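We now fix the convention by which a protein and its fold are recorded. Here is one such record, which you should read through line by line:

>
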Amino acid sequence: MKASFLFVVLLAAGCGGAGVSTSTPPSSVLIDTSLRSRPTPTPTPALAHHTILETDAADPITLIRFMTAPDYAWPSGKICCYPFSGTMFALEPSETIFLLQGGNAFSEVAPPYPPTSTSGPSGSLQSTTDASWATFAANGTLFVADYIGNAVRIYAPPYLQAPITNVTRAVDQPIWVGVDAAADLFVENAGTSAVTEYARPYTGPPIATISIGNLHGSTRASAAVDSVGNLFVIDPTVPAVRVYSPPYRSTPNATVTKGVTSPQALAADSDDSLYVLNVVKGTPAPNNYHYPVTSTMVKYSPPFTGAPKMSVTWNGWDNGDNFPGPFLVSP
């Protein structure tokens, strides 16, 4: 990823209403159903709460500020990460924060997150040259999108050895990766403006290819996936969030619009709720390169056809480089 990032982890609750239409720009999908194997996943019990983490990436260091339930006060504390621009974040199944810094260096911060701490690199990912996104499977397997390497690198704990698999077929400038409960891998490719899906062991061709269009430019992730394989894609032109459900038709199954105003990032939690982060950047004060930012998170429950069940707003600052950024939910 060529920019610094915003990172958030959260949970919520709510009410009904209308907010979904099925009129969306056309897209296309190619599916080989003979390659698909999607067992029904066992639901994961939702946590009592999720911690909200946000980074501002202000010079000279990256700050992770975190909030806790029930009111998500701003902030409960902060973690000061190693001073690399372009820091990427992921959450391990244990909720340990996995920090990818400087392209392939990484360090880890385990919960409970201290009020303040400094973390330096504790290793580096072999073969990865430019990590643009990372995610974990439930068993701790790490998937890293290597933007320059045109590959998704798959690592086993403790992530210090060479990749156990390199996914390269139909991978073109990957900017996002996700994994569902069936362990299917999803890759957003900036080079082809498509999301490709792979079944284990990930060495074969994609089992689905969904054309989403060049919605954000070449380096902005715009997708998320839940445990049952619902694929969510930001469409800033409406603005809206497209919802594609297995076995993936040529058009979205739904388009979420109510409460979606300036979508910049998406996430899904363990009970398959959808979260949308609306971000508005203001005008900096004279002689100040930091922009005031208003971020509003809204949450939807399946089938994503109602009004948002929760809305939370935070105000912060942006150094101009981390707009927009990733948005993740703890396991």
Remarks:
- Confidence is low (pLDDT under 50) at residues 1-49, 56-63, 320-325.
